[in-house]
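[Meeting: bench + compute handoff]

Bench side (C.D.) handed over the final construct sequence. Compute side (W.E.) agreed to return the predicted structure before the next meeting so the bench team could plan truncations. Sequence as handed over:
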Amino acid sequence: MEVRVRYAPSPTGLQHIGGVRTALFNYFFAKSSGGKFILRVEDTDRERYSDESLQDLYDTLDWLGVKWDEGPVVGGPYGPYIQSERTAIYQEYAKKLVDMGKAYYCYCTSERLERLREKQIAEKSPVQGYDGHCRDLTDEQRKELEAQGFKPVIRLKVPREGSTTFHDVLMGDITRENKDVSPDPVLLKSDGFPTYHLANVIDDHLMGITHIMRAQEWIPSGPLHVLLYEAFGWEVPTYCHLPMVMGSDGHKLSKRHGSTSVRDFRAKGYLPEALLNYVSLVGWSYDGEKEFFTREELEKCFSLEKINKAPGVFDYQKLDWFNAQYIRQKSDKELADLLLPYLKAAGRLDDKDYDRLLAFVPGVRDRLTLLSDIVPMTDFLEDHGEPDAAILIPKKMDAASSLSSLKAVYELVKDDLAKGRTDDELQNDLCELAQGLGIKNAGVFNPLRAAVTGLQVSPPPFSCIHLLGEEESYRRIERAIEVLEREVEKNV
């Protein structure tokens, strides 16, 4: 039997971490089993549907490198894969259930249903929900109601006795008394649109889905779906309800913990391979030790047996650590290509500045956690005027010695850069200069840093010079020398 799984989101909001983890688990299980990963868009909630959400779904999976075997855009033998395009199918099968005596037409108005709800609440009825008022209407009664203009819904006849059991790969057998299942839920609304339950079961059957992997919050729907499968006489797929994704406080992950949408993570500068790797480990482990997996490795080694039954905790700090590790693996060019859009958006650099950025990257790679960190790291590109004399004078040095040091540093840097010496060679030459001047290394590096950037803390000064350009860097150093000269004159 070929494994066929699906990810079936509702395009009513941006793709969030919990949904993406469900997509990844389905995708990796399909690939590791030699099966098919199907994308289905469950867009029957027309009030909340948005084109932006649908596009975000496609963009997110594309960014993560997850390609569906069947679904919208790519097509497949069981289409269409967008539920709003399958309405006639749902109507046909709902009518079949009525013909088989497994469902019935209901003409109750919203006003009657509201009165029923209020009565059940007031009486503290143990069973909340529809009371089966139209369950046994005769054909004559139905015709009379329709002649009066009443448009019916179709409801499932849920058995009032017995229980329903389904097996879950992680949770084992799950049983629920039929009297506790939602009483005779609506399958097809009066406007001809299906409810989630009907469309979900029909699509999973017609699309040949063998395994249903979804969040544990859907467990209460399991018995109802099994009753629908049984009503149609269809085989029930294998269920695997995935543990929830929790925040560090033990509550379900939400915006109060931080970003939850993939779009936000992407905008902040997380790499797709880092997010994919980390999210795949939230509630799943290969051997309890190995942490780094490529997408290709997960496509081979993923298995349901290694999913943890307990909720997975989403640790933002751990994700940051993963992202930093993946950034360090990038080549200079790869990282420059990723950083340039952030600097362009901030108005710091443009395409013509690419070579200078390329030279800047080696000095900052190990300082980056997110790609967006590059923006505050390049604040020095904006000239804020003359630096304060205080930041040009290192501890245990005065204005005169700092001036002497900076002048010597300036000559050495200009000479070394003209000769094309590397940053490592520049650093060694400056250390030798400090030794020759009889001062600590900070006595040469700190005045240079402060002169070039106007800051006491910044990326390595040579990297900053590369990004600023030699002409601008020299202008700033000369300006800093003038500041120190005035300071020396004041102290004479």
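W.E. noted at the follow-up: The first strand starts at residue 4 and ends at 7. C.D. will use this when planning the next construct.
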